[in-house]
Design a protein that fits this description.
Strand content: 5-15%
Number of helices: 28
Largest sheet: 5 strands, mixed
Shape: globular
Radius of gyration: 27 Å
Distance between the termini: 104 Å
Structural class: alpha+beta
Oligomer: single chain
Number of strands: 11
Helix content: 55-70%
Length: 615
């Protein structure tokens, strides 16, 4: 006859509570995922045009071309593209892993279903990936131990956010949604490790995730700063992570980084660049590991702090030129980078680009809390005693600083923007004994009001093909260019924003696209600008490799009194856009007109370098 003790009853009750929590978490995750999937598919009529899947967003065009070439094309997988930045070609600034694995997924699906359109497979991967990112978001929230009702609100914010929609929309093939995956992994696995700083397995899991991250985007090495700074602060307080766990993290980071670098051609060629997956990334991982090793073996004293400072200074010397380039990217200092909307800060979007309501349509009005949360969690870094809460404070401060720097970096701070205020609210409720139901209702009402711009304007907004009016307006010209390039490929002179769509649609080469991750890329953009201010005869003389010219009126327009005015002292405007007959050597292929006045919007020309050829 067995005896049931009070301990057994308590353990049984605890297991039942854990099961209920698990079931509730799964239900919330599934509901949030399905809501997000619904909104990701809202704009599909702008993606599927006449039965053809079109990429969504400028960078998605190039991703799609590289993926399809690797999956079903004759070119296979490449890391250097001779058709980009003609005539020299260039290294692709995106690492190998994302496009490579997307190509493998496409190959498997096409093998299983030979009649399926490969572009359809590629287009739906970002939508399906919602379930992955939602699961990681939920896992990170669970590590914060938020009350159940606030976890529900956090996941509702994730599901209804236009930022989630923007990352995961059908045919949004750009790799930002996978970058978000590694940001969430850094949050979840980092919180797990710092809640038990002596746990080697948790340390290794975080090290592996951070080692893999740069293979999907070069800039993700910055995620190492969060655990690095967290361990440093704990070391200053005399409570660093256990030596075994710190060394396990360092080893996992270095070994994993080395493994993901092996397929990278710039690495195999001995290159050392921030903008390419190269020895730079291995060196950064070694530097991070070295600091962890120092912290593991030396306790904090003033002498050891000075030694650590000297070590970091010495390690930083080889990185200085690359750090300058990295700050140039973050500050928008590269050539026309500052002109691209996605690299502008939320402040600039508020004041001179989109306006307050439309900006809030993307971020929600919660973006107004970002500076306050940044300051608050910066303060908590100084005061927080629990390692996991310290890690969270660093994570939020770091992420919100990135979010406030550039629109495209919103996924670094999105988790902190959503959960930062909810955690403060939950702590106040617990400390002051507020009613949980009342807190939930008040928080729900505040979020509902904050999300009004998104619910009314952004989530149901209908986009044009390619999510770009400029692209949609020249689609007929790209169709003609596709036919011409199939028979007679050559170099196309066009605005750099047209570079990726031209590469996607045709077999021709371009002088520049909007690849501006490296400072060297600016030279190709400047070359396009220079050529666009030459006369037609000078273009023929200086660039005999240019076979086609796509020229738009808006490429030569300035904003004057709220309206665009064409700069008529430009030779290309006068001779190619304003005249009915083209100059010698130029054959008009497509004439696109716009508006009721039938003004010329764009023209596509073929250029002949044979003096005897008629126009």
């Amino acid at each position: 006859m067995s005896t049931v003790t009070a301990f057994d009853v308590a353990a049984l009750g605890s297991r039942k509570a854990d099961r209920r929590l698990a079931v509730a978490s799964i239900a919330i995750w599934l509901a949030a995922s399905l809501i997000a999937v619904f909104f990701a598919l809202v704009g599909q009529e702008a993606t599927v045009v006449d039965g053809i899947y079109l990429p969504r967003g400028n960078d998605s065009f190039y991703h799609a071309r590289r993926i399809l070439d690797a999956a079903v094309g004759a070119r296979g997988f490449y890391q250097f593209d001779e058709r980009l930045h003609a005539p020299d070609g260039t290294w692709i600034p995106w690492p190998w892993a994302y496009d490579y694995f997307m190509a493998k997924i496409t190959q498997v699906v096409v093998w299983l279903a030979p009649t399926i359109e490969p572009m359809a497979v590629v287009s739906y991967v970002p939508v399906i990936w919602i379930f992955v990112n939602a699961a990681l978001f939920m896992a990170a929230i669970n590590e914060l131990k938020l009350s159940h009702e606030l976890r529900l609100l956090a996941m509702l914010c994730f599901a209804l956010s236009p930022l989630t929609q923007m990352l995961h929309s059908l045919a949004m093939i750009d790799h930002h949604y996978v970058e978000h995956t590694f940001v969430l992994l850094n949050a979840w696995l980092g919180l797990r490790w710092f809640s038990r700083p002596d746990d080697r397995r948790r340390a290794i899991a975080l090290g592996i995730a951070l080692g893999i991250a740069p293979a999907f985007h070069n800039g993700l090495f910055v995620l190492q700063l969060v655990p690095l700074f967290g361990a440093f602060v704990l070391w200053l307080r005399g409570t660093p992570p256990a030596r075994g766990a710190a060394l396990a993290f360092a080893a996992a980071l270095v070994v994993t980084t080395q493994l993901v670098l092996l397929p990278s051609e710039p690495y195999r060629r001995g290159m050392f660049e921030f903008g390419l997956l190269s020895w730079f990334h291995f060196y950064v991982a070694v530097c991070t590991a070295a600091v962890f090793g120092f912290i593991a073996y030396r306790t904090f004293t003033r002498r050891n702090l000075a030694l650590l400072g000297a070590l970091c200074g010495a390690l930083a010397l080889p990185l200085l030129p690359q750090v300058v380039d990295a700050f140039g990217f973050l500050s928008g200092a590269f050539s026309m980078l500052d002109q691209i909307v996605e690299v502008r800060s939320p402040y600039r979007l508020f004041t001179d680009t989109l306006g307050p309501v439309e900006t809030a349509g993307y971020y929600s009005w919660l973006v107004l809390l970002a500076p306050l949360l940044l300051a608050y969690y910066g303060y908590r870094i100084l005061r927080e005693q629990r390692p996991d809460r310290l890690y969270y404070a660093i994570l939020v401060a770091f992420g919100l600083a990135m979010l406030l720097d550039q629109w495209r970096l919103h996924y670094f701070g999105f988790f902190g923007l959503i959960t930062g205020g909810l955690l403060v609210l939950d702590e106040l409720r617990s400390r002051r004994g507020w009613h949980r139901g009342a807190v939930f209702v008040a928080a729900f009402a505040a979020i509902y009001l904050a999300y009004q711009p998104a619910l009314r304007t952004r989530l149901f907004a209908l986009d044009v093909p390619g999510q770009d009016f400029a692209y949609a307006n020249v689609m007929p010209a790209l169709g003609e260019l596709q036919r011409r390039c199939a028979d007679a490929p050559g170099v196309v002179l066009a605005n750099s924003s047209d570079g990726a769509p031209i590469l996607f649609h045709t077999e021709c080469s371009v002088i520049a696209s909007n690849f501006i991750l490296r400072a060297a890329d600016a030279a190709h953009l400047e070359e396009v600008t220079r050529l666009m201010w030459l006369t037609p005869a000078e273009i023929r003389a200086q660039r005999p490799d240019v076979k086609y010219l796509l020229v738009r009126t808006l490429d030569f327009a300035v904003l004057d009194g709220g309206q665009y005015r064409v700069v008529t002292n430009n030779s290309l405007v006068n001779e190619l856009l304003l005249k009915d007959s083209p100059p010698e050597g130029y054959t008009l292929l497509t004439n696109l007109v716009f508006g009721p006045s039938r003004d010329v919007y764009a023209r596509l020309y073929e250029i002949s370098h044979d003096p005897g050829r008629a126009n």
